[in-house]
Write a structure and sequence with these properties.
The protein is mainly alpha-helical. Among the domains are: about 150 residues, no CATH class; about 160 residues, no CATH class. It contains 21 helices and 4 strands. The strands form 2 sheets. Strands 1-2 form a two-stranded antiparallel ribbon. A two-stranded antiparallel ribbon has the order 3-4. A hairpin with a 2-residue loop joins β3 and β4. α18 packs antiparallel against α21.
Length: about 475
C-alpha cells in the first residue's frame, strides 16, 4: 500500500535521504508542512552546522592524522550534522566515485576528496564530474598520472564511462582507447609547503609536454579533444542522465526502477542542466517514491543502522553540545564514535575503504550471517552490555522509559524510537524479553540490560533490516 499521510511520507524521506527518522527530526521537518519540510532538507545551506570540526585536531603519537582518525572525523559529522541530506549525498558520491585508502595512502588527499564531494553534494553533476576527475585521490587511485603521449593508461578512461557516467555496455573499446589519449598530461604534485603538515596533500597539475595533441575519434566525432572536452561530451549524452538517475534511484528509492521512471526523471535532470538538487526534489515529490514498491523495501546499509540509531538515542546531540563547548580544535569523545565505526565495519562498511572501484554492493549484499550478527550485537554495544572487546556507547536509557516503566512500555518505546516497523504481532515477544531481565518494572539499575536485550531482538527482526 502506498504511503498516504504527509507525516508517513516525511518519515520515508528521512529514512532514505536523511540519517534516520527520529521523532525530533520528523517533528522538525513536518512543522511547516510537507513541501516546506522537503525544501528545508534540500536547502541545507541555510542551516548553520554549529561546529567546525577538523581532523587535524586529532593526531596520533607520530604527529600524523591516520585513517582511523579520519574515519572518526567523518562519523562524528554523520552523528552531529544538522544537514542530514548533505552527509547522505556525500556518502552516495563516495560510493559512486569509489576511491579507497587501501591504495591512496595519503590522508590529506582522501580528506580533500571528501570535502569536494560534500561541497558539490547537491550541486551540478557536470561540475562535480570535472572536479572529481582532477582530484588527486582519484588520479592516484586510477593511475591517471601514468597516462602520457605514446603510453595512454586506460584505467580512468574505462571507469569514467563504465561507473561514473554511462554504465556497462554503452561504449566501445575504441572509445576507451581514444579517450585515454585525451587525459594524457593530467598529473599531480605535492602541495608546496605542506611537508610538515599533519595531513600533507597533493594537487592537480597539467603537463602539456605529456599530452597527446593529435586527433582522436570518440563516439564518432573526431578532433584534438582534451580530457575536459571528453567529460563534457559524456555529460551531454542522454545516457548519462539516465545512468545517474538509475544510480540515485537504486540507492534511495528501490531496486530495478522501471524504464518509464528512469526516463521521466532523466528528462527532468537534463532540463535542469544536470543540477542535482531539482532532480532530488522531483524524486521526493513524485508519487513513485511513495509507492508500495518503495516503502520499507530497501535493505538498510550499515550507516542506516548504526548512525541512525545513535542519533535517535541522542548521541549526536550530546557530542554536538560537547563540540560547541570545546571548539574546533578539540576532539570529539572517541568512545561512542569508535563504537559506531567498529559496528559499521563489522557490518561491511568501513568509510574511506570501499571494496573496489565499483563501490559497496547494495541490497541483500549487506546481509550475511556475519553482518547480521553485527547488527544484532549493536543492540548490546549501544547500552554497554557487550561482552566482546569492542568500543561501546554506554547509553543510560532509564529516562527514555520514564513515562512507562513496564516491560510493555519499554518494548513499545524502543520500537517507536528506532522507527523499527515492528508489527503488533511481535510486540509480545519483546515484552517477554524485557520481563525476563527486569521483572515487572524497569529501574535505573536494570534499564541498560533490559534495553539491550529488547534491542537485540528488534535488530534481529526482518522488518528492522528494511528502510
Amino acid at each position: 500500500m502506498a504511503l498516504q499521510t504527509d507525516r508517513q511520507k516525511m518519515a520515508h524521506v528521512l529514512r532514505r535521504f536523511g540519517l534516520g527518522a527520529s521523532e525530533a527530526e520528523l517533528n522538525f521537518y513536518s512543522a511547516k508542512g510537507f513541501e516546506a519540510g522537503i525544501d528545508t532538507l534540500l536547502n541545507y545551506e541555510d542551516t548553520d552546522e554549529g561546529f567546525d570540526l577538523r581532523p587535524d585536531a586529532a593526531i596520533d603519537k607520530k604527529g600524523k592524522v591516520n585513517f582511523n582518525l579520519l574515519i572518526l572525523w567523518w562519523i562524528t559529522r554523520l552523528l552531529v550534522t544538522q544537514r542530514p541530506l548533505q552527509e547522505k549525498m556525500t556518502l552516495f558520491w563516495h560510493n559512486h566515485f569509489a576511491t579507497s585508502a587501501e591504495k591512496v595512502k595519503g590522508t590529506g588527499n582522501m580528506y580533500n576528496q571528501n570535502l569536494l564531494l560534500r561541497a558539490n553534494a547537491t550541486g551540478n553533476f557536470r561540475t562535480l564530474l570535472h572536479a572529481v576527475s582532477k582530484d588527486p585521490a582519484m588520479i592516484f587511485w586510477l593511475d591517471t598520472q601514468e597516462d602520457r603521449v605514446g603510453h595512454p593508461n586506460e584505467n580512468f578512461a574505462r571507469e569514467v564511462m563504465e561507473l561514473f557516467t554511462l554504465g556497462v555496455g554503452n561504449y566501445t573499446e575504441h572509445d576507451i582507447q581514444q579517450s585515454a589519449r585525451a587525459y594524457t598530461g593530467w598529473s599531480i604534485r605535492r602541495v608546496p609547503g605542506t611537508q610538515a603538515s599533519a595531513m600533507p596533500s597533493q594537487e592537480f597539475i597539467y603537463r602539456p609536454r605529456l599530452h597527446d595533441d593529435t586527433p582522436k575519434t570518440f563516439f564518432g566525432k573526431t578532433g584534438d579533444f582534451d580530457g575536459d572536452q571528453i567529460l563534457d561530451m559524456l555529460c551531454d549524452m542522454e545516457r548519462n542522465s539516465e545512468f545517474i538517475v538509475w544510480k540515485l534511484w537504486t540507492f534511495f528509492a528501490y531496486a530495478k526502477p522501471e524504464d518509464s521512471v528512469v526516463s521521466k526523471y532523466a528528462k527532468i535532470f537534463r532540463d535542469n542542466n544536470l543540477e542535482i538538487k531539482p532532480l532530488l526534489k522531483a524524486i521526493m515529490m513524485g508519487d513513485e517514491f511513495y509507492s508500495a514498491k518503495a516503502d520499507r523495501t530497501m535493505f538498510k546499509n550499515p550507516c542506516d543502522i548504526s548512525v541512525a540509531t545513535a542519533r535517535q538515542l541522542g548521541i549526536g546531540a550530546a557530542i554536538a553540545a560537547n563540540l560547541k563547548q570545546i571548539g574546533p580544535d578539540g576532539v570529539a569523545p572517541r568512545g561512542p564514535v569508535s563504537a559506531v565505526a567498529v559496528s559499521m565495519k563489522n557490518q561491511g562498511m568501513e568509510l574511506f575503504y570501499p571494496p573496489d572501484v565499483a563501490g559497496w554492493r547494495l541490497g541483500q549484499n549487506w546481509i550475511s550471517s556475519a553482518t547480521l550478527i553485527a547488527r544484532i550485537q549493536w543492540g548490546e554495544q549501544l547500552y554497554g552490555q557487550s561482552k566482546s572487546k569492542v568500543p561501546q556507547v554506554f547509553v543510560n536509557p532509564y529516562s527514555i522509559f520514564a513515562s512507562d516503566t513496564s516491560p510493555e512500555g519499554v518494548a513499545r518505546e524502543l520500537v517507536k524510537l528506532y522507527d523499527a516497523g515492528t508489527p503488533e504481532s511481535k510486540i509480545s515477544s519483546l515484552v517477554a524479553a524485557a520481563k525476563n531481565v527486569c521483572g515487572n518494572q524497569v529501574t535505573e539499575e536494570n534499564a541498560a540490560a533490559t534495553a539491550a536485550q529488547v534491542s537485540r531482538i528488534i535488530f534481529a527482526t526482518p522488518e528492522f533490516q528494511f528502510s
